[in-house]
Amino acid sequence: MTTAAAARTTDETVDAFFAAFGAGDSEALLGQFADTVDFHVVGAPNVPWTGSRSTKDEIAEFFGLFPQLLSGPESFEVTTRVTQGEDAVVIANCVFEVIATKKKFHNRYALHFTVVDGHIARYHMYEDSYAIHEAFTA
């Protein structure tokens, strides 16, 4: 852990995560995560990114799925963020299209981050898994 990473606040770490994600910078994105992460995305079994992960390799695979499966976001907006100590909850809206089915889904989701020593140690995503399931169904 670098001193700069340890000095970052929860909000600064979450901001860096979204900046790296939005820029498509996978190296910077992975750099936001701790070596071991409590990483979980709830959802339907036909949605490829659901499930639990814990290593940076597994997290890299997770984020690598999006450009393979989805068109770029038609829209993306963070609507709410609540931060208390190490925890931040972000509520956002986005619209994507599943490349294989050409179906769009509108997703209002919540992300629960826990930041420890300037790195994301917990990433739990709660999204509209039914809408996404429907978009993946031909």
TrEMBL record:
Chain ranges of the SnoaL-like domain: 14-123
Top-level taxon of origin: Bacteria
InterPro entries registered for this protein in UniProt: NTF2-like_dom_sf, SnoaL-like
A Pfam family: SnoaL_2
PANTHER family named in the record: BLR2505 PROTEIN
Protein name per the record: SnoaL-like domain-containing protein
Species the sequence originates in: Streptomyces phaeofaciens
